[in-house]
Write a structure and sequence with these properties.
- With 422 residues, the protein is an alpha+beta fold.
- The protein has eleven helices and 19 strands.
- It has helices at residues 29-36, 41-52, 89-110, 123-128, 138-150, 158-164, 185-199, 220-229, 241-255, 358-369, 376-384, and strands at residues 58-61, 76-82, 133-135, 204-208, 213-218, 261-265, 269-272, 279-288, 291-301, 304-310, 322-324, 330-332, 348-353, 388-393, 396-399, 405-407, 411-412, 415-416, 418-419.
- Strands 1-2-6-7-10-13-14-15-19 form a nine-stranded mixed β-sheet. Strands 3-5-4 form a three-stranded antiparallel β-sheet.
- Helix 5 runs parallel beside helix 10.
- The longest helix has 22 residues, at 89-110.
- The radius of gyration is 21 Å and the shape is globular.
Length: 422
Amino acid sequence: MGRTARDNRDRPHPRPVEKIQLPEGNVGRRLIAAAILLLIGGAGLAYAFTQLMTPESGWQAIEASTAQGPGCGDELVFLYELGADGASPAAENRAISALYSDACRTLFQLFHTVESFEGVTNLRDLSLHPNETLTVDGMLYRALETVQRSGDRTIYLGPVYARYGDLFFCQDDVQLTDFDPRLSGNVAREYETLAAWARDRSAIDLRLLGDNQVCLYVSEDYLAFARREGVERFLDFGWLRNAFVVDALAELMIENGFTRGTISSYDGFQRNLDSRETDYSLSVLDYVDGVICPAAVLRYRGPRSVVCLQDYAMDDLDWQRIYRLEDGETRTTYLSPEDGLCRSAAHSLIAYSDQIGCGEIALGLAPVYVAEELESGALDGLAREGIQSIYCRDRVIYATEPGVTLTNLYEGGGVRYTLARS
């Protein structure tokens, strides 16, 4: 122990993303790429069309400016239909862009675990000031409230993430032994010890006092251990971070009346804000023997929160959270509070809700997905709470929602997907 990792976002020159074989057939590479990006269906076509016309109207990508400082916009895609209600597209774009840019910068700072920022109380500050009452921004406070209400202990794995995060910057498998608990007994014991502290509510726990006031309680024993081992990062949202970032941005847009759009992150969190009768679609992907297959398309209308978890790379940014070993095994950021080891119960799992945000969905999925095996009974339990799920197994698509609309079931090259019927 006693190591302090630098923030991952400060690392230049990541190792190249490994190319993944795509299936042959009538589905071209461009369609598969679009499926992987989880772009909206009808709106995606409108967006592509309007790019050939004018950039001032129709479906446009809203960009987050970094002129005032770095933000989290490079991990997000925000598509919005400008001018649909008769408003000036240019004026609407300026208003949305300014709001979005400011929020992306604020959220980047709030969830930062390595650096403090003037005028902002963030996760780094909470870790540096245990047992003190601090006032945080409402967006961070609501995220902490959601986590505390769920009982999930992932965010207390900060000391594990501080060390484990270096794994994704390794250039070859030989370097993994300093960070990978599956390859090093010493590292495994270290993570297990840190995970035990994280699980112990008498050792560390958030105390939310109202009016955005937070106190991170840390026991004297844990503080003594932390000083001895050089632990500085007590809190880290880990793989959950962008779920709450997307939620915060979505709620901000809704509050300001900007609802004709969809916000998604590269690591699988998406909020559709549109309450109109617009048709949207989401690709259901399967991963078999190193091949990504567009198994089907989920059709829906109306506002929706979607969480897509997977343990294989799909985006150029996935190097930050997925490492593929030479033998085909993968390491991900889905760490278990039980022992600090990464686990994925399935290669892919989609969950969605029309009632709650991505953060609540992700927290509900955490004990189901960060596990050795995917239990259908647990997914049925989540469905009764309003969280529906879709996953593939042996070329069969399973869905917990009885009336789910799945189309374009993949068939080609001797492969055929079918929908399980309950």
